[in-house]
Amino acid sequence: LEAIVLGFIVFLGCLFRLINGPRTIDDAYITYRYVENIVNGNGFVYNAGEHVLGTTTPLYTILLSLLYFIIRIDLPWLSLIINTLADAVTIVLLWRISNQLLARLKVPKGFEFAPSLLFSMAVLSTNWCIGGMETSVFSLILISGLYFLTLRNKEVFATVAAGLAFLCRPEGIVLLGLVLGYILVFQKKKFIRALLAAIIVIAPWLLFATFYFGNPIPQSVLAKTSAIYVVENNFFDNFSYFLELLIDNPIGHLIGIYYFPNGKGTVLVFLTVINIPLFVYGTLTLFKLIDRKYLLIPGFAFAFIGIYALSIYKTPAFLFPWYTGPVVPWLLLLLNFGLAGIWKQHQKLPKFTGKIVHVLVVLFIIIAVINQLHGYNNGRSYMTSRGYYEQAVNFLQPYLKKGDVIAAAEIGELGYFSHARIIDTVGLVSPEALNFYPVPENERWTNNTIPTKLIMKYSPDYVISLDAFMKNSLLKSPEFLNDYTLLKSWPNQEFGSTNLDIYIRNSSANKK
């Protein structure tokens, strides 16, 4: 029966992801362009001949490249299939971890399926799976590290998984540090072997990246951590992405998000009142187990969120919602252990009160499932691909010539579909752009504002941008307006814009 129930949950999880098809977000296309260049023999580059590491997920890029080399199918679909398989394995591992721990707590059968069921339909997992991001693979590697450490007692395997997590996303260093720290404190004899395993996994990439790119730290990380292209930055607005984790359980999608009277920021007080005590009680429940390795679950969840909170407090960088996805399975485990602990405590209560506790716990899980379903439109995600940059490229194709250069503040779709050389005006793949930040105060309007001096120095053939990114800079520059002509414009209200514009350099237009 367990196999049938688990199989159904896995099927449900795959269905929620595959029924949507790819809904690729802009950043995923950056990785896809690296993949195409690798497979086509141009090297690990975004622009041919420019050795810049502009992706923060080298492991995922290499994995996609290997599979794309073998199976030449549409990259968004290939990515969706890989991500769906990764989430399917995560569902199984969540069940196995819950099954063993809850058995030690002597909780009735059935609870062990809750994290897997909720994760199978979790909007914060599904969105980034279909969005083409590395979140699903990263989440699987992280949970694998937990699985090897807690269920298999394979400290070296856990360290290898943590090392791979670091290569998949820089945040993987959180798990690596916790695993190595646990082994150093509680398994001293195995520490050197585990450390060597981590070095063997990570060192080859670090050496290659240092030799090939000149720096093992991705340029995109350098740009985002300095974030000097950020004009507006609000800690609460950024950290609200982590608060939105609370929407997933138990009734966040049902009641929606509350706003402050001034309209800024989100208030999830009611959800916090429900969830935070359960996370804390889940942690206390794990404390009752003799083996302290299980405290890796709250340890990773709280450290992951805490480090992000500290980073956005100390720097002007802002977060993106897919950063929160990897911690979802860990919070679901904590939530479940909190519920299990409450269920177990009912034995000390009067019979009638204990029955009420039973009903409330079961009702909580049922409402949580309904809540997840409410986050979809008949099984379909509300998330959509942008598409307007692809539309711009389709318009531009008859004009583009070999060697043409496009400057833009958002380069994912634009670079992937145009195959042109790109100047990334926020510096994720173009280090030279950061020399023109911070933008002069008189030019600032919003984040991603394009500096006028950057465009005038490098004279790209085209500038493609939402007008919000040019409003106080390029569009008020006599020099730019003298050298460039508006070629095409579409209505667009993203980021407070009114249009998406294509500007062509006059000297380039005369040659076409």
Query: What profile does the largest beta sheet have?
Result: 5 strands, mixed
Number of helices: 22
Give the termini separation. 69 Å
Sheet-strand content, in percent, reads 5-15%
Order of strands across the widest beta sheet? 4-3-5-7-6
Q: Average the pLDDT over all residues and give the rounded result.
A: 88
Task: Give the radius of gyration.
Answer: 24 Å
Q: H/E series, N to C?
A: HHHHHHHHHHHHHEEHHHHHEHEHEHEEH
Which key terms come to mind for this protein?
globular; 5-stranded mixed β-sheet; 512 residues; alpha/beta; two-stranded antiparallel ribbon
Task: Give a verbal description of the structure.
It is a single chain. The protein is of the alpha/beta class and 512 residues long. A 5-stranded mixed sheet has the order 4-3-5-7-6. The radius of gyration is 24 Å and the shape is globular. It has helices spanning 2-18, 26-39, 58-70, 75-104, 114-120, 123-130, 135-150, 155-168, 173-186, 191-213, 219-226, 235-243, 252-255, 269-287, 296-314, 328-345, 351-374, 388-396, 412-418, 452-458, 478-483, 506-511; strands at residues 258-259, 266-267, 405-408, 421-424, 462-466, 484-491, 499-505. The N and C termini lie far apart (69 Å). Residues 259-267 have low confidence and may be disordered.
